[in-house]
C-alpha cells in the first residue's frame, strides 16, 4: 500500500455519526488524514475547503444535500474531487452525480476497497 | 231478608205523605173493627191492645207524626166507641198509656232510623272497601300473572334458591339447560345438581353473600350440558315481610353469542390494524432500507478497517480491536432496527405496559426523519420534560404516531412554503398526556373535518382510508381521544390524549 501525503485532507460529510466514525477509522488505517462534518453547511462554515483534497459526501442529508454542496463548491470555483455515498441510490441519481463531475457514486453498504481506490484516484496518489 | 236468604240492607223506600197518614187512619180502623166485630167483645182493653198494635205499626212504617196521629185517633175511638161514659180519670189513664206508648215508639223509631243511617253509611263504606279490595285483588292477580309469565317465559334462566341451598322454583329455561323437568329440580340440593366441589368453591360464596343481603353478580365461562357457555349470573336477596332474607333470586343470562361476536370483532379490528401497519411499513420501504443500510455500511467499513490494521506489516491490535468493536456496535444497531420493524409489523395480542412516550416519539422520529428529508420536511419535537408514563401497547401507539406523521408528510409534499412537522407533548387534565402533531401542509378538507375519521375516507389516490379510523380506535381503546383541528396559519393539527400510568397505592 502506498502512503499518500499525510497533509492531504479527506473531508467526510454525512449526517450519520456511525458512518462518519467508520469512514474516519478506515481512512486512518490506510494512512489518510480526515475530518468529518455532520452537514454540508458545517463543512462550508469550517473553512477547510481549500485544503480538502477529496470529499466523501452523503447525498441525502437534512438541509443542503450532497449534490447541492457540489454545485455550490463548483459555483465558488472550488472544485474538490467528490465521492458520493448514499443509502438510497438509484440510477437517475448516479447519472446526475457523475454528470456533475463526481469521481465515484457508491451506494451503501459500499465495498471499502473500491472506496479506498476512489480516494486514491481523487488524490491522485 | 230477600228471596235468596240475604239480609236486605237497602234503605227503606220513602212513602208518600198520603200513604203515611192513611196508614194511621187505616190501622186504627182495623183495630176498631177487630175489637168490635171479630172478637164479639166490647171491651175497651181489647181495643186498647189492638190500638197499641196499630200505633206501633203506624210508628214503624209511617213515621213519628202519623204514629202520634194514630195514638190520638185510638184515644178518640176508644172514648167514642167503647167507653162513652167513662170517667175522666179512666180516660186520662188510657190516654196516658197511649201517650207513653207513643213516646216509646217515637224513641224506638228514632233509634231505628239512626241505626238505619249508620247501617247505610257503614254499608256504603263496606261496599267501597269491597270494591277497592276487589280491584286490588284483581291488580295483584294481574301482577302475579305477569310475574309468573316473566318467570315462565323469560329467555334467561331464573331460579329461586332457599337458605337451605335447595331449589324452590326454576323456570323452563333453567330446566331445559339441564335436560330435566322443573318439577324434578325443585327440592334438589344445588350441590347435587352442580357438583359438590363446584358448588362449594364457586356458587356457595355468592349464595352466602346474597343471603347476607348483598346483591352480587359475576360473568364466566361454564361447562354445561349445552357445551361451553359464557354466563352472566346475578344473585338478589328475596325478603319476606320481616325483612329477613328467605331466598336468593338467581338470574343467569347466556352471553355466549355476544362474547364470541365481540371477540371476533376485536380480532377483525386487530387484523385490520395489522394490515394498516403493514401497509404503512410498505410505504416506508425506501426509508426503512435506508435506516438499515446506514449501520450495515458502518459495520462493514469497521470490519474492513479491522482487517487492514491486522494485515499491515506492523499490525496494530489496539486499532484493530477498536474497529472490530465498531463493527459489532453497528451490526447490533442494524439488528435493533430490524427488530423494531418486525415488532411494528407483528400480529399479536395487545400488551399493555408502562411506556415512556418521549422515548417512543424519539424512536419514531428517528425512523421517519429520512422519509421527511426526502421531501425537505423538518421535524421538530417539543416534548415535555419528566412526563409520567402511560399504560399502553407500545406497538399500537407507535402505529398511531406513524399514521399521524405519515399523513403530515403527505400533506406537505406539494406545498411551496416552509414544510415543518412539529410534535409536542404535555401534561393534560385527567390526568392524561396530550400529544399534538401539526404540519404546514394543505390543511383539513373543507367542511369535512369530521369525515376524515370515517372508514374508507381518503384524499390519497392509492389510500385505503383506514389509517385515522384505526388510530382513533386504538386511542379510544386506551381511554383517550383523537381529534383534528386547523393549524394556524396553515396546515392541520392532530391531538390525542392517553391516560397516564396509575401507580398502585401501597
Task: Please explain how this structure is put together.
The complex is a heterodimer of chains A (125) and B (506). Chain A is an alpha/beta fold and 125 residues long. Chain A has a single domain (9-123), classed as 3-Layer(aba) Sandwich (Rossmann fold). Chain A has helices spanning 17-29, 40-46, 66-75, 91-99, 112-123, and strands at 9-13, 33-37, 52-58, 82-86, 104-107. Chain A has a five-stranded parallel beta sheet with strand order 2-1-3-4-5, sandwiched between helices. Residues 1-7 of chain A have low confidence and may be disordered. Chain B is α+β, with helices and mostly antiparallel strands and 506 residues long. Chain B has four domains: 17-128, no CATH class; 154-254, Beta-Lactamase (2-Layer Sandwich); 262-349, no CATH class; 352-506, Histidine kinase-like ATPase, C-terminal domain (Heat Shock Protein 90, 2-Layer Sandwich). Chain B is built from 14 helices and twelve strands. Chain B has helices at 17-38, 44-62, 64-82, 88-153, 172-177, 182-185, 190-194, 196-211, 256-283, 285-310, 317-345, 357-374, 394-412, 467-477; strands at residues 157-162, 167-170, 216-224, 227-239, 245-254, 353-355, 378-383, 390-392, 420-428, 432-438, 482-486, 492-499. In chain B, strands 2-1-5-4-3 form a five-stranded antiparallel beta sheet, sandwiched between helices. A five-stranded mixed beta sheet of chain B has the order 7-9-10-12-11. Chain B starts with 16 loop residues before the first helix and ends in a 7-residue tail after the last strand. The mean pLDDT of chain B is 85.
